[in-house]
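Justification of computing resources. Each target in the renewal requires a structure prediction run like the one illustrated here; the chain below, 366 residues long, is used simply to show the kind of job we budget for.
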Amino acid sequence: MTDPYASAGVDTEAGDRAVELMKAAVSRTHGPGVLGGVGGFAGLFDLSAVGSYRKPLLATSTDGVGTKIALAQAIDKHDTIGQDLVGMVVDDIVVVGAKPLFMTDYIAVGRVVPERIADIVRGVAEACEATGTALVGGETAEHPGVMEPDDYDIAGAAVGVVEADAVLGAERVADGDVVVAMASSGLHSNGFSLVRHVLAERGIGLTDRVDELGGVAAEVLLEPTRLYTLPLLGMLERGLGIRSISHVTGGGIAANLARVLPQHLAVEVDRTAWAVPEVFRALAGLGGFGVEQAEGTWNLGLGMLVVVDAADADAVVAASERAGIPAFPVGRVQAAPAEAVLVEGGWIRGAKGVDGGAVRLVGAFR
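Resulting structure tokens:
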């Protein structure tokens, strides 16, 4: 007998095959706090497994990976986009000082291809494992007639826990603190609408080899988002004087740093403190603009900005380097000058609804 749901374009058997293909990778993320296995209506997590807290606060974050998915689709490579998702979601949790506990994901597809779904979720699971996060559930939804057969989108949400008096934030930042940058692995998952616009304006396809990029465009630009959670948690567990942390995502360098500074303080980020990775220079060159013009869109090589007591700045740099992540001071916190309210002076004050401190970039990139 013909399944009427299948005739409508929904293949439930393919969905079941996808789950079977991903089960082993998902199960590897499960520690003692996870109750039950894969496939339940809801994931269960035993909060007593996290240990004793005087006043535990739950931290949560949700995000997607934006139009970077178009690159994965262009070359049919889907095993790294999951790491991008975890980087965007879980690394937003650690910035408040929280330890991630668990994550769920959601994949909307035009047509379920089990192997493709398994590749995506395997990437999510491996990145969850690398950040100490349990992947406790997810959903794959088939949307025939609404999405093209090979289209998909992915989103996720995660929950972490932090002691109430250990929450990081702008109120902890003091005059004289140092801003240490932890290097990015590339574009991460932001600004790909500009990337695709630049390539399209030059008549470059995502599957074209681009000499300026050193390879096929999509292959080079799919470099996965670097994961910062475990190195940062290690620094916090050592008691280093970290005041606040900024994840450099949408909005670029200055706006994201301004969100984690108090209104009366400011930072001048020194452009001479690091060499902008070649991928950004190549894209800017293809677009006919300077890298400075992309400071509000791309991270330009800075993945995390750690605001730390000056006495512990060298220790933060050393800890990051030991974790394989280049790090370097890029600025110092100071009292906000009166003219910092002026956009004409290059200052940016707060972003995304946060009326924070003032930040501007100074000097010339080397």
